[in-house]
C-alpha cells in the first residue's frame, strides 16, 4: 500500500481515503493506491467500498507535476475501468472540487454523494485536450447529451445542486465526507442496492452533432479542443461503450499533439508564475485596508468597484459634489451588475454603496488612506498637480499610485518628497471586469511598495505583471508597434476591414480597428499628437486619415461612428463609408500605389511586429520574462489564449523564420523593421523564449 491512499475496514465496508495534499491530485502514487486498495477490499471480503478525500477536497484533478512527463502505469483510464468493474459496491463521497479526472473517477464509481458546497466539472478543454478517462462516454449516460456537451465544451464548474438535477450526483447531505459517505453506503447495502456501472447504462439519445460542432468551433474562435470534444460525445451515442472509449482516446491523443495544447499549457503555468517574483520573497507588504481613488470616470469608478468587491473601504475624490455623486452613480451601476449576477445580495449592495464608499471633494479626506490611486486625465501636468497635493496630505508610508497608461512614472514620482512610495498601477477598462494589472516599478520604488501592489492585485483577483518604465510600459508599447504595422499595411493597400477579419480569424476577440472604436479613437489621436509634438523620427512613416475622423467628431462606438458605423447598435458593425475615401486620399497624397495583401501576410506581419517589439521589451528589462509579455497580451489585449501569447506563438512558429521575415521587410522599411537584439541573439544561439522563462524560474 502507498501512503497516498489510506485503507480501513469498518465491518463489511472498506474505506479508501485520499491523503495527497493539498488537493488530492491524481498522481501516480494515488492511482496505484486506489487499485491496491480496491484489490485489498476484494480480498478482505468487503461488500462495499467508500472513496473520499481527506483535507479540503475530493480528487481535484490531474497532478500538474506530471504534465509533460512520460505516462506511468496505471493510467487514470485503467483505474476508472478497474473501479467500475469491481464486484463490490463502490461509492464516492465528494466535497471541495471534483474536476477533470476527479469527476471521471467519481463517474466510475457506482453511486455518488456530495456535500452542498461541492463542485464538479470537466475543464480539460481549457488545457487544449478533452476528458480522456471516460468522461465523454460516462457523463452523457448519466446527464444526457445536451448537459454533457455544455459541461465538456465550456469546462464550467457546477455546484452540487445543479449536478444532482443533472444526475451526476445521487444525494446531497451536509456533514463530513466520511460520515455522510458511510451512512449512504449502509443505506445502499440495507436496501440491497445493485451495482450500477455507468458503462452498462443505455446509450444517450443523439442530437444534431454537425450543427453543435460548427457552433462550438465558431464560439471558440478557432480553438479546436471544445469542438473535438463534441465528436467524442457523439461517439457515446453511436458506439458501444468500449468502442466509444477507444474513440475518446484517439481524439484525446490527436489533441495532445497540437500546438494549441502547448499554448494552453503554457498559459496555465504562466498565469501561476507571473505574480511570483524572487525579489519579493520575504518582503513584508504595507497595510492595505482603506484606499482612495481620485477621479470617478469610467476607469476610476471601475477601480473603486473592484476595491469595494474585494472588501476594501474606498474614498472617492472628485472635483465637485455633483461630480462625486455622478461617480457614485457609476459605481452603483457596476455593483448593480454584480447584484443581478448573484455575486452580492441586496444587503451587501447597500453596505458597499452607503458604508464602504465615501465621497469627498477635499484632498484632506485621503489623509488616512493606506493607498491612493489617481485615475485622472492622461496628461503629465495634471498628474503632477495631483501628486503634489497627495504628497502634502497623505500619511507617511501611504502608497501613492498612478493609473497612467503611457506616462513616465519616474517624472511623476519626482514631484513628491517620497518617490520610494510611488508606483504605477495600470488597470484596464472596465477595471472591475478586466483581469490585467500592470504594476509599474519606477527607479526609486521601494520593494515593499512593489509587494503591496502585488498584494492589492491578488486581493482584487487580477493577473498582476511587473513592468518597467517606458512609454506605454509592456502592453501599450507593444500595442503601439503592432497597431503601427496595421496602419502601414493600410497605406500599402489593405483595408481596416480585411485586417480586422484576418486577425479575428486568427483568434483575436476583435481586430485592431474594432478595438480602437471600442476604446475611443480620441485616445490614439491624443497619443499621436503627443508623439508628433515630441518630434517624430524623420524615418518614421505617418498618416493623418484617422485624425480626420476624430476632427469630424467620430470617436468610435461612443459617438456612433469610427472605422465602423454603429447606427444599428454597438454589435452591428458596418464599415463606415467615409473611411476608405480618406485612406485613398492619404495614399494619393503620399504617392503610394496600393497592392493586395493576403490574409496570411496580414497575420504574419502583424504578429512579427508584435514579437519583435516584445523581444525588445524583454531585452531591455521592461518585462523580466517572456511569460510576462504573454500574460499581458492574453489578459489585457484579447490575444487568443490557445496560442499561449505572442512569444509562445513565436517559439512554436520558429524564431529563425520570423527573424528572416523581419530582415526581408527591413529592406523596404529599415526604420520600422529593426530586428530586436534579443531575437537575433536567441536565433544565433539556437535558443527560444521558453528557455529564458526556464532560466528565470531556476
UniProtKB/TrEMBL annotation:
InterPro entries xref list: 3-OHacyl-CoA_DH_NAD-bd, 3HC_DH_C, 6-PGluconate_DH-like_C_sf, ClpP/crotonase-like_dom_sf, Enoyl-CoA_hyd/isom_CS, Enoyl-CoA_hydra/iso, NAD(P)-bd_dom_sf
The organism's place on the tree of life at top rank: Bacteria
Pfam families according to UniProt: 3HCDH (PF00725), 3HCDH_N (PF02737), ECH_1 (PF00378)
Keyword Zinc-finger: no
Residue span(s) of domain 3-hydroxyacyl-CoA dehydrogenase C-terminal: 472-566, 602-688
Keywords: Fatty acid metabolism, Isomerase, Lipid degradation, Lipid metabolism, Lyase, Multifunctional enzyme, NAD, Oxidoreductase, Peroxisome
Catalytic activity entry: a (3S)-3-hydroxyacyl-CoA + NAD(+) = a 3-oxoacyl-CoA + NADH + H(+)
Protein name, per record: 3-hydroxyacyl-CoA dehydrogenase NAD-binding domain-containing protein
Domain spans labelled 3-hydroxyacyl-CoA dehydrogenase NAD binding: 291-467
Pathway: Lipid metabolism; fatty acid beta-oxidation
